[in-house]
Amino acid sequence: MSKKFSLTAEKRDGAGKGIARALRRENKIPAVVYGDSKEPVSITLPLKEVTLEYRKGYMFTHLCEIDVAGQKHLTLARDVQLHPVTDKIIHVDFLRVTPKTRIKVDVPVHFINDEECKGLKAGGVLNVVHHEVVLECAATDIPEFVEVDLTNYDLGDVIHMDVVKLPKGATSVLEGDETIATIAVPRAVVEVEDAPVAADAVPASTEKKAAE
């Protein structure tokens, strides 16, 4: 079950830049609830509360229960518009969801057991290609993250999507052979191995015999 937070909203009559600017002067923001084959509902939300939830970093993966004059809507934030200069939130779109709603969502990838990873202990570097992966799953069962166990990976190994542990019912948009990360060989090691040998280099033992 996806985690959930709650917001209290007011129903909003009218639209347009003038109304939106007036709301923002009152530290409120316009938003809309849509989907589930129902009429969209224009609402007003308190800027402070929405900003707090947004900055926690899970607004797109946690369900939001919005109370509009006593009527509750189970939703998921699908778009947050920010002011191009101040980065303040200026509008949010919420999608109504049910247990039957399937969506595509970006889910963070967590790499675990790095302290046990052979390659990292040998001085390798974890080069992450995808910090997030797109999953298709039920809107009411969005995982907070997916995991990759690094224990058995060595220097030069490539980690593919097919090793990522997915929750039941979820599928990945990426193909199984898509690279998620690599255990990169340390640059110093590569430079030493590739260093050219001087043509006139003579072993010390040979020089000694020549002198005799």
UniProtKB/TrEMBL annotation:
GO terms for biological process: translation. The keyword Ribosomal protein applies. GO terms for molecular function: 5S rRNA binding; structural constituent of ribosome. GO terms for cellular component: cytosolic large ribosomal subunit. Residues 7-94 form the Large ribosomal subunit protein bL25 L25 domain. It comes from the Bacteria. InterPro entries: Rbsml_bL25/Gln-tRNA_synth_N (IPR020056), Ribosomal_bL25/Gln-tRNA_synth (IPR011035), Ribosomal_bL25_b-dom (IPR020057), Ribosomal_bL25_C (IPR037121), Ribosomal_bL25_long (IPR001021), Ribosomal_L25_dom (IPR029751), Ribosomal_uL5_bac-type (IPR020930). Keywords: Ribonucleoprotein, Ribosomal protein, RNA-binding, rRNA-binding. Pfam families: Ribosomal_L25p, Ribosomal_TL5_C. Residues 103-187 form the Large ribosomal subunit protein bL25 beta domain. CDD domains: Ribosomal_L25_TL5_CTC (cd00495). Belongs to the bacterial ribosomal protein bL25 family. CTC subfamily. Part of the 50S ribosomal subunit; part of the 5S rRNA/L5/L18/L25 subcomplex. Contacts the 5S rRNA. Binds to the 5S rRNA independently of L5 and L18. This is one of the proteins that binds to the 5S RNA in the ribosome where it forms part of the central protuberance. This is Large ribosomal subunit protein bL25.
